[in-house]
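FORM 7B - TANDEM STRUCTURE REPORT

SECTION 1: FIRST PROTEIN
SEQUENCE AND TOKENS:
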Amino acid sequence: MDEAQNDAEFKSENCYLIAFRGRLFRVWDSLSVFAVPQFSAIGSGGDFATAALYLGHNPKSAAKVAAALDLYCSGKIDTMIHRESSA
């Protein structure tokens, strides 16, 4: 199989989490948008991380669980805290 055939058969499936006005939304590359009722995780270890969140882990701990259980998760885990402005 040549490179052009590989490119034609490759299907990218992207998913994004977007926070807006205190709510979380999951957006697929098809532009389908779904509200997330509690929490969500994406990526190759997303199912493991979501389960860890459900079981009470904080986000960084959930990412560590996913990295331990999913072959394709690795690397440094960065966290970010978003605070609403009072203005």
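SECTION 2: SECOND PROTEIN
SEQUENCE AND TOKENS:
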Amino acid sequence: MLEARGFGPGSAFHSPHERFTMRVPLQDLTGLSLGIEFFVAIVGLTAVGHRVDGKLGTAPWFTLLGFGLGAAVGFRSMYRFATKPPGDDSGNGPGTPPGNNP
């Protein structure tokens, strides 16, 4: 009866006694890592600029400079990922000179 409603062993719903493990392929986490890297670059460099502004009394100039540099670093990271050839996990990006591969 339960199998007819989609609650059997072959359905998407499992019994509470079965062990459920979630496995996410690593390539699915690439977008998450890029987003975190982008966020950390902007927030981190903006915070450094804000702290420098507080010490020197130059608000908001170093805060804006930190934000701009953070955005540039974040976009550079995305650009390097977007221009990396598929399947290239060697860490050698587009700026690596030829012949420096391990």
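SECTION 3: OBSERVATIONS ON SECOND PROTEIN
The first helix runs from residue 30 to 56.
The chain has a mean pLDDT of 78.

SECTION 4: SIGNATURE
Preparer initials: ____
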